[in-house]
Design brief:
single chain, alpha+beta, binds fe (ii) ion, about 35% strand, eight-stranded mixed beta sheet
Length: about 375
């Protein structure tokens, strides 16, 4: 396919997360992850939008959380169908009018026209479109010096987190689908993204005698100018129904965002601090670390700077396929598990430190699968 004109995406500005309990989100982001609360909805905005919102920030990562105030708002509509989950991805673009025109020409479906807002700093132009994944919409924003976060948001005075764990930016967004092809085609033909990476994995490969297992196909699409990357998963047979991707879709009650990966410059220090702050991560087996020295050699990484005993203590994962180029990653427990509340939903965060590797942890899929499966088996008992 001929290369499409770029939409002019600059970055993922943030995610908009709909939650039942905004105070619980505040405790999670500010208390546990050391994000700062920077903006809150004004009384007027709450009256018109019928939801209460707060913005949590660390580095270039912005998370807007909204919970319903009565019926009829977007948060209430989302939560009538789903547990807590990501309802909007927000992109900063160079030129909202151009992005709107290109999207509409290529079959994108705007929900509204471009809205323009003014404050003493400048203008904010934004519009939203629907997407092929469930109830998650995309919002595009052009910031022309606008000082506020969004109209009706009030700045929260400086108190709050200092980002001591060093979160930098969103590395990628991973979504789960019953079938991902519509999303892949839409990302290619409407947004102008390109395929970057592909993997297929099944736990029955580990032990062919297993009567159960979990498999997925995963394709990463990206926007080369902005480096915005979407990983997309679908369940793979055999045992489609017991695939973790299918289970995620059942828990979310639809397709949607499974995890967001946040970069840090020093994952060892970050994870040590987060653990001391009572953040819970997905467990990794001791056998993973027993195999790791051999895997580092057979994968072609050769050597790593970190002490394997420290990685094992913190349960940080390693992956890569080039000489001395690798990445370190770890996954937080999903929200429902963190809070012991099904309504908190199956979304989770990944923390990633890249040391020359551009992949997404294919070699770690097995370890992650096995650890999630163990959690699911424990929950079923
Ligand atoms: Fe990931």
């Amino acid at each position: 396919m001929a290369k499409l004109e770029s939409l002019g995406i600059k970055r993922i500005e943030g995610i908009h997360y709909y939650v039942h309990d905004l105070d619980r989100s505040r405790r999670f982001y500010c208390g546990m992850l050391d994000f700062a609360e920077t903006w809150r909805s004004s009384k007027e905005l709450e009256a018109t939008g019928r939801q209460r919102s707060a913005v949590f920030e660390a580095g270039d990562v912005r998370v807007v959380c909204s919970s319903p105030l009565g019926e009829g708002g977007r948060a209430a509509r989302f939560l009538a169908k789903h547990p807590d989950g990501v309802g909007t991805l927000i992109f900063e673009v160079e030129d909202a009018a151009r992005a709107f025109r290109l999207l509409e020409e290529r079959g994108g479906t705007p929900i509204d026209d471009i809205q323009t807002f003014q404050d003493d700093g400048g203008t904010l132009k934004q519009f939203s479109i629907t997407t092929p994944f469930g109830d998650c919409t995309f919002r595009f924003r052009e910031r022309g010096g606008y000082r506020g976060f969004f109209p009706g948001a009030e700045q929260v005075s400086a108190a709050g987190g200092s980002n001591r764990f060093g979160f930098e930016q969103i590395d990628h967004v991973t979504s789960n689908f019953q079938t991902m092809k519509p999303m892949l085609l839409w990302l290619e033909h409407v947004l102008g993204f390109e395929q970057m990476w592909e993997v297929e994995f099944h736990t029955s490969d580990v032990d062919p005698n297993r009567k159960t297992g979990s498999g997925l196909k995963s394709i990463v699409m990206w926007d080369p100018p902005s480096m915005v990357r979407f990983a997309n998963n679908e369940p793979a047979r055999p045992f489609f129904k017991s695939s973790q991707i299918n289970i995620f879709n059942e828990e979310l009650r639809g397709d949607g965002v499974q995890h967001v990966a946040l970069t840090v410059p020093d994952i060892i220090t970050a994870v040590r601090g987060l653990r001391a702050n009572n953040v819970n991560f997905m467990p990794t087996t001791a056998s993973y670390y027993e195999m790791l020295p051999d895997r580092i050699v057979s994968a072609g990484i050769g050597k790593i700077d970190e002490d394997i005993a420290v990685l094992r203590e913190l349960e940080v994962l390693v992956d890569g396929d080039h000489h001395h180029a690798y990445m370190l990653q770890i996954f937080l427990k999903e929200a429902a598990g963190l809070y012991g509340d099904k309504k908190a939903g199956p979304f989770f965060y990944e923390i990633i430190q890249r040391k020359g590797d551009r992949g997404f942890g294919a070699g770690n899929f097995r370890a992650l699968f096995e650890s999630i499966e163990r959690e699911q088996q424990k929950a079923a008992r």
